[in-house]
Amino acid sequence: ARIVFLLPQHFHFNLMPVFLFVLQTPKKKITRELVQTVLARKPKMCSFLEWRDLKIVYKRYASLYFCCAIEDQDNELITLEIIHRYVELLDKYFGSVCELDIIFNFEKAYFILDEFLLGGEVQETSKKNVLKAIEQADLLQEEVSVISHSYTVSEITLKHAR
User: Fold this and answer.
1) In angstroms, rounded to a whole number, what is the distance separating the alpha carbons of residues 133 and 48?
2) Cα–Cα distance between 153 and 162 in angstroms, integer?
3) Membrane-crossing residues (predicted)?
4) Does residue 14 surpass a pLDDT of 50?
């Protein structure tokens, strides 16, 4: 995939879509055109469309559209499966992911995608392994946070003891 992004169903153009992975940063005009194209499609229409020199593959889950822009030679059905797997990972991590989870925890959404895809290609097919890596990273982050907090508390205690 060259571009992976999320769109809320009721997209406002003063907000940008959440770009999770981009090989080339799209310009505002191109982004607007792509968003309008996807959101204008009817629910019963095919989840694939030709757009410029790319194929857009998208899937709507609740109020979010998960979209990928892929090369002409890439397989649309595999891309749909990748989108579905990513949503499953988000659901496992957040417990039924919603738009607010992505907005307020976008760094986790990026991290989960990075554990799953590398350079737009699937790097790990096992959900169990991806979730394990995310869990380990969360534990490490907590440990660093606790150590950092304890140093701050120690410094404050030392300053007040003087």
Assistant:
1) 32
2) 15
3) none
4) no
**In the prediction, which pLDDT does 13 show?**
45
Rounded Cα distance, 138 and 136, in Å: 5
pLDDT at 159: 59
**Greatest alpha-carbon span in the chain:** 71
Q: Compute the distance between CA of residue 15 and CA of residue 67 in angstroms, rounded to an integer.
A: 17
CATH of segment(s) 3-161 = 3.30.450.60
By three-state DSSP, how is residue 97 classified?
Answer: coil
Of 33, 32, 26, give the one whose Cα is nearest residue 13: 32
* Closest residue by Cα to residue 8 from 30, 38, 28, 42: 38
Indicate the domain borders of the chain. 3-161
Sign (positive or negative) of CA dihedral 141, 144, 147, 151? negative
Phi, psi of 109 (to 5 degrees): -60, -40
Three-state secondary structure readout of 23-63:
CCCCCHHHHHHHHHHHHCCCCCCCCEEEECCEEEEEEEECC
